[in-house]
């Protein structure tokens, strides 16, 4: 059944793969981004998927953007909170600014994305909330106190939303990717990246499409009894 899906940060990296995969399932997809107009235009030219620009860290911008998507495409039944950033530093060097930027985007951004669509999902008695967490939220990571806090927070969010939404036909789940070959990971110095790959039993980075397939499954009718769960896709790097 064709539904309306919103993917934040859906124009690049993992989000772009998710947007494309949801479109391939027959859904009407809206992909958002923060400021990279060039990447968004190239994405629309390639896929035909409509893009919207707003900052997920801002509640009013998110609510207004979501209202625009719902007016133009339809009520949102599938929401994928994917937009995320890193601002890495060892804790003793981490600035309050680095802490707040990551919390505002990755954690408050999830609230700002899901809250405006939640009442509609409750009324229509259907919803799929999927949050892109991370292996580093499950196990912690050097120089990522801020990032790991947000990604562990995502797991708490979906476990709580699952309990609130279950009777209303809404599921909320998280996907925890391991290291995936996107710009975020390719920006890491090559030596560090090599040492990361050496720690992955699969011996390679994951592909964005491997995460997208977890999302399309969770978004499907087949996943109706999976609620409050996390799917780990990390090449056996960490078990949880
Ligand atoms: P990318 O950096 O490749 O893409 C990020 C996307 O998010 C872009 O579309 C970007 O928009 C958008 N974005 C960033 N900040 C904001 C904001 N404030 N408001 C709206 N949109 C924003 O990221 P990845 O694809 O690598 O990561 C996607 C998600 O997966 C993140 O949540 C990340 O934490 C998580 N993840 C990634 C892993 C990896 O190995 N890559 C591993 C585990 C989890 P714009 O193009 O305008 O900048």
TrEMBL record:
GO BP annotations listed: monocarboxylic acid metabolic process; poly-hydroxybutyrate biosynthetic process
Pfam families: adh_short_C2
Keyword Protease in record: no
Annotated Ketoreductase domain residues: 3-183
Database matches in SMART domains: PKS_KR (SM00822)
One GO CC annotation: cytoplasm
Keywords, in A-Z order: Oxidoreductase
InterPro entries for the chain: Acetoacetyl-CoA_reductase (IPR011283), KR_dom (IPR057326), NAD(P)-bd_dom_sf (IPR036291), Sc_DH/Rdtase_CS (IPR020904), SDR (IPR050259), SDR_fam (IPR002347)
Family: Belongs to the short-chain dehydrogenases/reductases (SDR) family.
Protein name: 3-oxoacyl-[acyl-carrier-protein] reductase /acetoacetyl-CoA reductase
């Amino acid at each position: 059944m064709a539904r309306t899906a919103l993917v934040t940060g859906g124009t690049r990296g993992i989000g772009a793969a998710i947007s494309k995969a949801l479109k391939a399932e027959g859904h009407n997809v809206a992909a958002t981004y923060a400021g990279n107009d060039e990447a968004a235009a190239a994405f629309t030219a390639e896929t035909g998927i409509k893009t919207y620009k707003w900052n997920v860290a801002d509640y009013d911008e998110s609510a207004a953007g979501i209202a625009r998507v719902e007016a133009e495409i339809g009520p949102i039944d599938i929401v994928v909170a994917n937009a995320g950033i890193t601002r890495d530093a060892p804790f003793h060097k981490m600035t309050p600014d680095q802490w707040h930027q990551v919390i505002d985007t990755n954690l408050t951004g999830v609230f700002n994305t899901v809250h405006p669509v939640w009442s509609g999902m409750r009324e229509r008695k259907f919803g799929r909330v999927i949050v892109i967490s991370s292996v580093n939220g499950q196990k912690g990571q050097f120089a990522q106190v801020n990032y790991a806090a947000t990604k562990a927070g995502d797991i708490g969010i979906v476990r709580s939303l699952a309990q609130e939404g279950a009777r209303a036909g809404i599921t909320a789940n998280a996907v925890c990717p391991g290291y995936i070959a996107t710009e975020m990971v390719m920006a890491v110095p090559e030596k560090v990246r090599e040492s990361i790959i050496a720690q992955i039993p699969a011996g390679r980075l994951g592909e964005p499409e491997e995460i997208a397939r977890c999302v399309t499954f969770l978004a499907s009718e087949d996943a109706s009894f999976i609620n409050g769960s996390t799917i780990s896709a990390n090449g056996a790097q960490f078990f949880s």
